[in-house]
């Protein structure tokens, strides 16, 4: 993968589009979910880079070996891939969004009840809730707050047939974010 030349914005959009073929145990495909997550970010008035992070946060599901619940290490796989074109304001929330779930389950008492079945199943396989030490370590990450915010949009973006803007809507933001 690392020997490939950098893709253009077109190729990044194509990779996103290919996520329509990926299931991850939810009632919608990974592309529909990614577009909903980005729409939540945009509606919340998030910084442009965090909207782009929301759009690409699950791109690792298209880059690894899927289980019934998708690619379990998709956050690190995706962040590593994206790091060739985007800076840490995008790659770090992506890298940390699975850790943010483990952190929120440990620190927000009502959070677990709001998780989908697939998220609960993958949580178990991803190591379960953080213990106190891991939670404290996560909280010290520079982009922990952005990762937690992204995680909440991620959890909300799982509504089958929700009408949200398409990939092309985000092209100017993607172009501006490529470093
Ligand atoms: Fe997600």
Task: Describe the protein's architecture and organization.
- This protein is mainly α and 179 residues long.
- It has a single domain (9-177), classed as Hypothetical protein af1432 (Orthogonal Bundle), CATH 1.10.3210.
- 55% of the residues lie in helices and 0% in strands.
- The protein contains 9 helices and no strands.
- The protein has helices at residues 9-18, 30-43, 48-56, 74-82, 88-107, 117-125, 132-139, 144-156, 171-177.
- The longest helix has 20 residues, at 88-107.
Question: What's the arrangement of secondary structure elements?
Answer:
Blueprint: H1 9-18, H2 30-43, H3 48-56, H4 74-82, H5 88-107, H6 117-125, H7 132-139, H8 144-156, H9 171-177
- Rounded to the nearest angstrom, the distance between the terminal CA atoms is 19 Å
- In percent, how helical is the residue content? 55-70%
CATH superfamily: Hypothetical protein af1432
Total domain modules = 1
Given the helix and strand composition, which structural class is it? mainly alpha
Oligomeric state of the chains present here: single chain
Q: Biggest β-sheet, characterized?
A: none
Number of strands: 0
Molecular shape: globular
CATH class bucket: Mainly Alpha
Overall average residue pLDDT: 93
């Amino acid at each position: 993968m690392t020997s490939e030349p950098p893709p253009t914005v077109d190729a990044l959009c194509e990779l996103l589009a290919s996520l329509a073929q990926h299931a991850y145990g939810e009632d919608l495909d990974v592309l529909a979910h990614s577009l909903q997550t980005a729409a939540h970010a945009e509606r919340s008035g998030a910084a442009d880079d965090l909207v782009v992070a929301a759009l690409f946060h699950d791109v690792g599901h298209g880059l690894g070996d899927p289980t019934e619940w998708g690619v379990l290490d998709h956050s690190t796989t995706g962040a590593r891939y994206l790091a060739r074109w985007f800076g840490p304001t995008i790659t770090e929330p992506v890298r940390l969004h699975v850790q943010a779930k483990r952190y929120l389950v440990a620190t927000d008492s009502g959070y677990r009840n709001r998780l989908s079945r697939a998220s609960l199943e993958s949580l178990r396989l991803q190591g379960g809730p953080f213990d106190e030490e891991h939670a404290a370590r996560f909280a010290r990450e520079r982009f922990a707050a952005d990762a937690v915010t992204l995680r909440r949009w991620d959890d909300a973006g799982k509504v089958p047939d929700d009408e949200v803007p398409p990939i092309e809507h985000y092209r100017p933001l993607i172009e501006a974010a490529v470093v």
